[in-house]
Amino acid sequence: MRDEAAREARTAADEVYAAILARAPEHDIDPTLERVRQVCELLGDPQHAYKVVHLTGTNGKTSTSRMVERLVREHGLRTGRFTSPHLTRVTERIAIDGQPISDERFVEVWQDVAPYVHLVDQRSAERGEPRLSFFEVFTVMAFAAFADAPVDVAIVEVGMGGRWDSTNVADGDVAVITPIAMDHERYLGDTLVEIASEKSGIVKDGATLVLAAQTEDVEGVVLAAAAERGARVIREDVEIAVVERSVAVGGQLLTLRGTGGTYTDIFLPLHGEFQAHNALLALTATEALVAGGGALQPGIVEAAFADVDSPGRLEIVRTSPTVIVDGAHNPAGVEAMVASLDEAFAFQRVVGVVGVMADKDPEGILSILEPVLDEIVVTAAGNTRAMAPDELGEVAVDVFGEDRVHVVERLDEAVDLAAGLAERDVERGAAVLVTGSILLVAEARILLGRG
Asked: Contact at 8 Å (CB) between 207 and 172?
């Protein structure tokens, strides 16, 4: 009986998701906050019912969001977390106390907000304007779900950019900007300065801004925006720093200097130097939110970080041969992933399974992967925005040479081929690396039983 009810709830949630999915996709930005603002006003402005930590940047947003959420929750506060995209089920995007909302709750939240969404859709249509997009609807649902829970703190990751992102109807008590690099140029601008200008739009009057290390030009843009809004700025490598880190079994051991003091012997069960810097940003954001910039109890910090996970980021999803998935999808992310792969693992042979979106930089991504991949199997993520395997294969041949490139349309066949190629030298320590797209990684996780 219980199984039947679960199946019915899942079917109902899938139907709601399909209906929302029929709207404008989340990468199709219409630069206005008006539609989301109108729906939120009709709902009583749920986004103002709790404190908000708002995160943007090019890479590291989701991992940092998960760390902030875990640190805040360890303090006994109820949390909401809104991140994107999802890896297995759409309900992952809206989490309460670290857990995705249930299928039943997902449907209920949609039913709660739907009348107001449809009303604003109708108003927009009368003006000849578009209805709410996929991502705008999800933003409204997240804010409503958090207010209804109710949560004490919402950790909210932007979908893209910042200034015009639908999440920006919320006023972040703490804003976090992770490293800014080139990505989504079509929507955010062709230079780092332009992209930084868009992302600094999440900094609100009187807020605290936690800023990752940036290039000089980017930092200048962000600091100017923060000064204009009277925000307090805490900069990596100025007020805060990763003091020390060492590789440990299953992760790394950190010493972090926050605004409240130095925290030693922090075990983080994630691989890669970039995750240490994400941890620093998360720690500092939590200090600002929970302790006004003062010190957190070391035991709470240790317990929270030891329990952090980040699915799809240097995640081992199979052994014999080892299969690792990583959602790096732009050159800066791939560079960080490659450095971490070399540091955390001692593989002597790595075969890649790579697919990228058509609006990314395939040559830049493949050029960074080339020195660490012995062979590459090019495939496509199951998405209309994915670059065709044949087209990506041509780029791969230019970078790797014809003998090292294989083109396979289906992901399951691509993984099987890569595993066979890796197992030729399994005694020397071989692995398969699936990367290039978060959507590809999501499919691979499901395929390999992690979904």
From this structure: yes
